Amino acid sequence: METPVISVVVALHNAEGYLSECIGSVRACRGDAIECILVNDGSTDGSRAICEAAVSEDNRFRLLNRERSGVSNSRNAALGAAYGKYIMFLDADDYIEAAQWPSILYYAQKLDTDLIAFGYYSLFPSGRIQEERFAIEGGTSGDPADTFRAMLASPMLNTCWGKLLRRSVITGCGLCFDPSLVTCEDSVFMIDFIDHANTYILCNSYILYYRMHESSAMRRRPLVQKLDDFGILYSRRAAFLAARPDPAMRLAALREGFSVLTNLLREYAGCFGLSETRGACKVLCSHPVALEILGEIEPRGISPFYKKLEYAWMRRRLSLPLSVYFRIKSRLSGK
After folding, report:
1. Distances in Å between the alpha carbon of 108 and those of 22, 34, 82, 88, 167?
2. Rounded distance, CA 9 to CA 36, Å?
3. At the fourth CATH level, which superfamily is domain 6-211?
4. Each residue of 278-291: pLDDT tens digit?
5. At CB < 8 A and 24+ separation, what contacts does 156-159 make?
6. pLDDT tens across 79-99, in order?
7. Domain ranges across the chain
């Protein structure tokens, strides 16, 4: 097989329920422009057999079997084995829109850009589908400022999947995923990549379906751990902004940071009872990253009104009204 244009990386662990659909969506790409590296991270279900079948049926697929060591180590292993001009990460429970392969290959083959990021569909457990797009004028943007804003002020560039990342930027700068992070590993990797890249394109073609799961993962990840990880990301964002001083961008980053805090409390309230949620509010409101964000953001920069209310209660560490409020909010949102 000729050197591929895109190396699709699928790191997986016990993903047999969705893996065949994911692999099938990659195989829908015709020709030798792609390779697919499957990294089996110590699966104990039928995932390995599904991967082995794909490798035997399609010579564009390769399989790396590893002892269980986490998604960051699995992705790093794939980066060391990839040959493509671009890396495209894909989670094992997501899948590519087959009709979008010609568009993806066009961007990869015809343009000389370090980062090409696409829109996607969020697929909810109820079957509802939501379009996720960049806040840009027109269908595409090559303005670096648009990329920086999307990274700092929205969740669109907080994940590594569904993007074309020039492999030479990754290897040349020694970029890798931090295995010490339980959460935010995608976001930290992406900010490092964008910091070292020179050219960017945002494209509002919806190329994949991102499967939304119930928030049960909150039970498996201690809140303090998530806050610690977010603190690392927030510090990395602050360093990025320090090199590119822009008051509007800084305000947008603070608003996004505040939204991360409130979303954590809403998700927690959706998983636990009032007493546990109240304890979580106390933990979050006294955590260094929350104190930093709450101390830096101006109340007048917060909208709408209910966000101002959240801010006031969090700033004063009023755990009881916060816990009741977020319990109600989580039920109203269906989370």
Report:
1. 20, 10, 16, 10, 12
2. 6
3. Spore Coat Polysaccharide Biosynthesis Protein SpsA; Chain A (3.90.550.10)
4. 999 999 999 999 99
5. 156/117, 156/132, 157/117, 157/190, 157/194, 158/186, 158/187, 158/190, 159/186, 159/187, 159/190
6. 999 999 999 999 999 999 999
7. 6-211, 217-333
